[in-house]
Amino acid sequence: MRRIWNLLSKSKQLASFASPASKFRVNALRSYCDQSHLRCQNRPGKLRHDPYQESVASELENLLARLEQYEKDMEEYHVNLANWEKQRENERRRLLMEEVELQQKEEDWWKRTRPKNMEPGVGKWVSYLKREKKLDSLVGRCPTAPSAPKGAYIYGNVGSGKTMLMDMFYSATEGIVKHRRRYHFHEAMLRINEHMHKIWKNQIEEKPLQSTIAGWIMSLPFDMKAKEWLAAEERYKQEVQMKNILPAVADKFFMDGEENAKGASILCFDEIQTVDVFAIVALSGILSRLLSSGTIIVATSNRAPKDLNEAGMQKEIFQKLLSKLEEHCEKVLIGSEIDYRRFIAQKSENQVHYFWPIGKEAINEFEKKWHDATGRLGGRIISNTISVMFGRTLEVPESCDGVARFTFQYLCGRPLGAADYIAVAENFHTIFISDIPVMSMRIRDQARRFITLIDELYNHHCYLCCLASSSIDELFQGTEEGTLFDLE
């Protein structure tokens, strides 16, 4: 219910989607937004002073002040790390060539290696560990990363300004920190799935041996069998490194193609939650890896960290995630009981884009709104197809230059998910949804999809117009097979 109010309040007709403190210190304000945006936000009637938001802003300002030096420290660290990795790789190759030369001196070496290859896991693992230990003594340990400033875990009630403050902070880091990402929970999970799929696909693709032998091996003065052995050792090293897929996904989180990895990294994560076992396992593995490698995380949630997993799923793994978050993030509560987005929506004169109950009058008003919106754009209504992640597509029955209309059943009564709703939100700035029923446990799955849909429309700043069976306050209060609860 609150999500609907939130989206209605963020429609393009409304002035602002939250209310930050209007009397921040000058340097704090300059830190969070440019002066033109600041002047716009401080116009009378758009913002209200909120001491809770001001407290959070102060925490974020302190973090922002430390980022410039941290970026420089991380750039220097990554230069040292790259030099260390290059030296270690050169030494590793030298050791491998020494092993080949030594073994080739024995006349029946290749015959005696055949039985060993019957059980590659044991022999290769022992050889790998011995080689890594020797490299530690030759090259030394990995350079120590600089201590990262603590991030922030911002939690509090819906509509209290968490996302707004996080987004203002994220905007302020532009030009200070090179590697930045801002994800909502649903988008992050999709990206994680996408990266995992790519890694698994690369791992299971079988290529001819010749094509898997690196150029540096092919140029060595050894016979083909020796080169094949070296190639097998190379592949085994990669398999060891990729065995835990979640750290591998985390390492790709900030990289686009051949993008340079030097410098600090910041992840802004909106609405962190643990809705199922996969979310707990994936977030634990990836966030732990990012935090351990120096990434600063600023996250928002409606729940305190310890309350994220009230269902008690994967307790041991969740506890590791919780420990990491508490070690690397300051817990910051926005204690306001005011839902500013609902407050704005209720006071707005332009709030007439939620029509109920379904009847002649509401249908006529809804249709008028639709014809007004499409008429301004030329009025040519067509059906089209939009691309969805993972190579899928979604048919859009009615659309007109950025405006689309769907029924509730079409979007939520079928097995669609966040990827589909993100595609809709990215392709259309205005969405009309008709025939929204009162939801209860009988259609729990549809209710979940509807909430995910609203989340993505909200995240992409879409305008929403609804034709529903009841008021927003009663939309999730159906009693068939029980009233819905805790669908977050």
UniProtKB/TrEMBL annotation:
Pfam families: AFG1_ATPase (PF03969). It comes from the Eukaryota. GO terms for cellular component: mitochondrion. Belongs to the AFG1 ATPase family. It comes from Mucuna pruriens. GO terms for molecular function: ATP binding; ATP hydrolysis activity. Keywords: ATP-binding, Coiled coil, Nucleotide-binding. InterPro entries: ATPase_AFG1-like (IPR005654), P-loop_NTPase (IPR027417). Residues 53-108 form a coiled coil. This is AFG1-like ATPase.
